[in-house]
Amino acid sequence: MEGDHGPAHRLPRGHSRHGDPRRSADGRARHRRSRPAAHRDLELDLPNGSPLTRSIDAEIRQGERWLLTGRTGTGKSTLLRAIAGIWPFGRGRIETPLDARVLFVPQKPYLPIGTLRAALSYPDAPTAFSDDALRDALEACGLGYLADRLEESRHWALELSPGEQQRLALARVLLQRPDWLFLDEATASVDEESERQLYQLIATRLPRMTIVSVGHRAGLAAFHVHRLRLQAATDDGLTQPGGAVREPIT
């Protein structure tokens, strides 16, 4: 292994959406049954090798709700990408629950060109959900006016506003019913009252789901119990050691 100031270390690949990869910097990946999601001595880098985060140690248990906060550039979105297996630069260990359904929702969701049914059902097949289920999800997320357009084929990323796209992505959450949900600024394009209603909707319909959110609005704290405040690797004069401060939300 290179030193801390050497080239970026690629986190080993092999992350599975439903698996429990234990990743180590030696390139080996192995699975073990584990309920919590955990980050052990995790340090993330930029692609050029510059350090992005200090060491992160955290454990998230099934059913908990965590809010990731920190100043711009502290690696909040990058941490979610690393958990998803699409950010290979860094060192340390990431563990995710075995046999759990995990869903990541970015700020700008992917909307395939095609029918609204296909866009709403993604990543499952367009036939995965009944018409009633699709219409109910749209209605619940404030998109009831689209319920009669399921068979229309459009470039929905151009057809819908950013706020509508985020509502559609959360309608997918209601359909997919994941065990673990990671939200990366997934409600940033809707107003604060709509954000509150959408989070309340998810909490009511999926009360046992684990939620990890990245967001900046103060109102998000009401829907989370724990906070993980990230600190940049270049942040001098810190009063707390390590790359993240864990604290309850009161």
Q: Which helices and strands occur, and which strands form pairs?
A:
Blueprint: E1 21-23, E2 29-31, E3 37-44, E4 56-60, E5 65-69, H1 76-84, E6 90-95, E7 102-105, E8 114-115, H2 116-121, H3 131-140, E9 153-154, H4 156-159, H5 162-176, E10 180-184, H6 192-205, E11 210-214, E12 226-230, E13 244-248
Parallel strand pairs: 5-11, 5-12, 7-10, 10-11
Antiparallel strand pairs: 1-2, 3-4, 3-6, 8-9, 12-13
Helix pairs in contact: 3-5
Characterise the protein shown here:
This protein has six helices and 13 strands. With about 250 residues, it is α/β, with parallel strands linked by helices. The chain has helices spanning about 75-85, 115-120, 130-140, 155-160, 160-175, 190-205, and strands at about 20-25, 30, 35-45, 55-60, 65-70, 90-95, 100-105, 115, 155, 180-185, 210-215, 225-230, 245-250. The model is unreliable at about 1-10, about 10-35 and about 235-240 (pLDDT under 50). Helix 6 links the parallel strand 10 (about 180-185) and strand 11. The termini are far apart. The relative contact order is 0.19. The strands form four sheets. A six-stranded mixed sheet has the order 7-10-11-5-12-13, with helices on both faces. The chain has a three-stranded antiparallel sheet with strand order 4-3-6, with helices on one face.
